[in-house]
Write a structure and sequence with these properties.
single chain; 341 residues; alpha/beta; TIM Barrel; 2 domains; eight-stranded parallel β-sheet; three-stranded antiparallel β-sheet; 36% helix; globular
């Protein structure tokens, strides 16, 4: 299996050097990086507040590539960290930051296209500006875009976002939806519950909103991936379906298609942390709709890059799909896209 192409469809990256946006704009609490007392680390600061410490594998392309080589994985699909979305910021501020991040990723990909592919960021609080940045990102070589599971509390089924999804479909840009700004997080901060409970719920919120809201029905060629294996959507699909059947007056108000009909019409990544759950979503989705993903370099991710899949007794075709085939189709490229020139 060592000769198999492997693509990590879900990784995060930041530029080591960023402007101090709060100082540049004269307002806000934007992320910047400061030196850490620990060598090889940096402190993410949100304004004057400590947010998180990150290691050099969050920004150093060569270190990342070496760590992936140790795990027989050649390609990383890179996107920013969700805290950089800045949906609640003034639109011009968020747009400036998105352009900076997109330029950084585009340069990384251009320098090493056989090992990196990029997903852009957009200021989704302004749909028109987001479409413009999406078009610019495509011209820079980005293969898709990452957005959050909600925008300032608004579900992705809101009609104001439809033109953006329509542009993604028209431009052939892959769409990755990542949980963030987790609902109820203020009520469950203890035990890291926003990440353990809130994130799966947020992804289910996004998936169900796009299905019940008719986005996937109206845009059948939209290539969307829900991260973290779709969160709690697939494990509780029976409940979603039962609600659709027993209370259509509440559930089927914008789309009268059973949610189960959309299985296999969207992608998920493989971050289940559980072989039995992976078997379950394989049964629902098929291996050609599950992309190996890790959430690298963060510790809650699958930092072994799907190594457990090799011990599950899966067929060669299933493994090929999980490690590369599904991601290639989601990204809209052939394997030769990542061949060294």
């Amino acid at each position: 299996m060592n000769s198999m192409l492997r693509i990590d469809s879900h990784t995060h990256i930041l530029p080591r050097e960023m402007p101090r946006w709060t100082e540049r704009f004269g307002a806000g609490n934007y992320i910047h990086l400061e030196d850490s007392p620990r060598e090889g680390f940096a402190r993410m600061m949100q304004g004057n507040r400590f947010f998180r410490e990150i290691g050099e594998n969050c920004w150093d392309a060569e270190i990342r590539k070496a760590e992936y080589a140790e795990r027989d994985t050649q390609v990383q699909v890179v996107c920013t960290i969700p805290v950089m979305f800045n949906y609640n910021a003034p639109t011009d501020h968020a747009a400036d930051i998105a352009r900076y991040l997109n330029d950084h990723i585009a340069e990384l990909v251009a320098d090493d296209p056989s090992h990196y592919a990029g997903l852009a960021s957009v200021p989704l609080q302004d749909t028109d500006l987001s479409i413009k940045e999406l078009e610019r990102a495509k011209s820079l070589g980005h293969l898709g875009v990452q957005i959050g599971s909600n925008v300032n509390g608004m579900n992705l089924s809101e009609e104001r976002f439809f033109s953006f999804f329509e542009a993604c479909e028209k431009l052939g840009m892959a769409l990755m939806i990542h949980p963030w700004d987790m609902m109820g997080k203020e009520q469950m901060e203890k035990y890291w519950l926003p990440w353990l409970v809130g994130m799966p719920a947020e992804t289910a919120r996004a998936a169900s909103s796009m299905i019940f809201g008719g986005v996937l029905e109206r845009l059948p060629n939209l290539r969307v991936m829900f991260s973290h294996a779709g969160g709690s959507f697939l494990p509780t699909l029976g409940r979603f379906e039962h609600g659709f059947n027993c209370r259509p007056d509440l559930v089927a108000v914008d789309n009268d298609v059973n949610p189960r009909e959309y299985l296999g019409k969207f992608w998920i990544d493989s971050i289940t942390h559980d072989a039995d759950l992976l078997r379950y979503v394989l049964k629902l989705q098929g291996s050609n709709r599950i992309c190996m993903g890790s959430d690298y370099p963060f510790p809650l991710g699958d930092l072994d890059l799907g190594a457990y899949m090799l011990d599950m007794g899966l067929s060669a075709e299933e493994l090929q799909n999980l490690f590369a085939g599904a991601a290639l189709e989601w990204l809209g490229v052939e394997a030769s896209h990542f061949s060294p020139t």
